[in-house]
Design goal:
Elements (H helix, E strand, L loop, with lengths): L14 E2 L4 E5 L4 E6 L5 E6 L9 E5 L2 E9 L14 E5 L3 E3 L12 H10 L6 H15 L25 H10 L15 H14 L23 H10 L14 E2 L2 E2 L13 H5 L6 E6 L2 E10 L4 E5 L6 E5 L5 E3 L15 H16 L1
Antiparallel strand pairs: 1-2, 2-3, 3-4, 5-6, 6-7, 7-8, 9-10, 11-12, 11-15, 12-13, 13-14
């Protein structure tokens, strides 16, 4: 008999396999495998979202996979002021899912004016950042939400994401409408709001955050989408389509997964969307496998790529000596958007153009 001590109560159940492995996950987002005979940790992967569900094991073409849902979608964490993530991580190198942060509090111009007014007597930057770290630790870094110093936990990591201050300001103050990320403008004092925005900015490499802009940029509420654009937004992340939805590979306004790089230009028509050029997709030969691949990095230690053979994309890490890459692929964008008809794709294009204008 063995035991495995842990600092948190593990909300996720355990999966035992015939190969003497036990899989589970923790509230900080770590998915890990233990030796069923000894209790030794054999493997671990950070999923960027806390675990409370049950892992499963299944086989495709003779290859065994382990999948585990992660995130806290459905639990009411808004009172704690934390982001909530709905995410899926497949432990054999497969990492995908939809980040969904919920809540959103509409902030009035009066409050923003108040926040800006407080800046006149604000502390110097080191004091503001210290205050922001304290507010973040007490309000956001709860283990079930973000981790300490912006590391991942129940919600995704914030440190080193490359966010600009305008995005941070808008998200912290107003939240993200239609998701579980609450805005803090109504729950934090103006000075705490400014401080935490500055602190999150510092986590993203902004050495001298603009305190005069913190808390005050998004003064007006979001402009309502047109009926066609609203329908396009719903279709973009339509859960009923499973992995055949656009948000499986694309991220718009915080919805979806950014597997693909952002479109440099919105296609002018539905036929152009179906025929979208994908020069970044190459062909990878790995042993007996040949696959369309979207290469993320290639170093002397490993090659990291998305295998696009079937939706959803599979994130794989391969040894450089085990894979050969060639430019070009028979993979086509039209092959993964077949669940949409022309009218639906037209609404999605209207939504994309609407977002581009804002």
């Amino acid at each position: 008999m063995w035991s495995y001590p842990y600092k948190y109560v593990l909300a996720a159940s355990m999966l035992a396999t015939a190969g003497d492995l036990v899989f589970t996950g923790d509230p900080e987002g770590n998915s890990f495998a233990l030796d069923a005979r000894t209790g030794d940790k054999l493997w671990s992967f950070q999923t960027d979202a806390g675990h409370r569900g049950s892992a499963i094991s299944y086989s495709v073409n003779g290859r065994q996979y382990v999948a585990t849902p992660t995130g806290w979608q459905g639990a009411d964490f808004r009172k704690y002021g934390c982001g909530v993530v709905s995410r899926c991580i497949f432990s054999t190198g497969l990492d995908f899912g939809g980040v969904r942060v919920a809540g959103g509090i509409e902030v009035t111009r009066t409050l923003f004016m108040l926040a800006v007014g407080v800046l006149a007597s604000a502390q110097n930057l080191p004091e503001v950042l210290k205050q922001g770290e304290k507010v973040f630790s007490e309000t956001c870094a709860t283990g079930y939400c973000h981790g300490v110093r912006g590391t991942p936990a129940g919600a995704p990591r914030l440190v080193g994401r490359g966010f600009d201050q305008a995005f941070i300001n808008n998200t912290v103050t107003r939240g993200v409408t239609g998701t579980a990320m609450s805005g803090f403008a109504a729950s934090l004092s103006p000075s705490d709001l400014i401080a935490v925005i500055a602190y999150v900015a510092s986590l993203n490499g902004i050495a001298n955050p603009n305190l005069a802009a913190a808390g005050g940029a998004p003064a007006s509420p979001e402009v309502a989408l047109s009926p066609d654009a609203s329908r396009g937004r719903q279709l973009f992340s339509d859960a009923a389509r499973g992995f055949a939805r656009c948000s499986t590979c694309h991220q718009i306004n915080g919805i979806g997964i950014s597997v693909a790089t952002p479109m440099a230009q919105i296609p002018v028509s539905v036929p152009a969307l179906r025929a979208l050029a994908t020069p970044q997709v190459s062909t990878a030969d790995a042993g007996s496998e040949t696959m369309p691949a979207l290469v993320l990095s290639k170093t002397s230690r490993n090659v990291i790529l998305y295998d696009l053979t079937t939706p959803p994309p599979v994130l794989r890490t391969l040894e450089p000596t085990s894979v050969n890459l060639a430019e070009g692929s028979a993979w086509r964008h039209a092959s993964v958007i077949g669940s949409y008809n022309d009218e639906e794709l037209g609404s999605i294009l209207i939504y994309l153009r609407d977002v581009e204008k804002r």
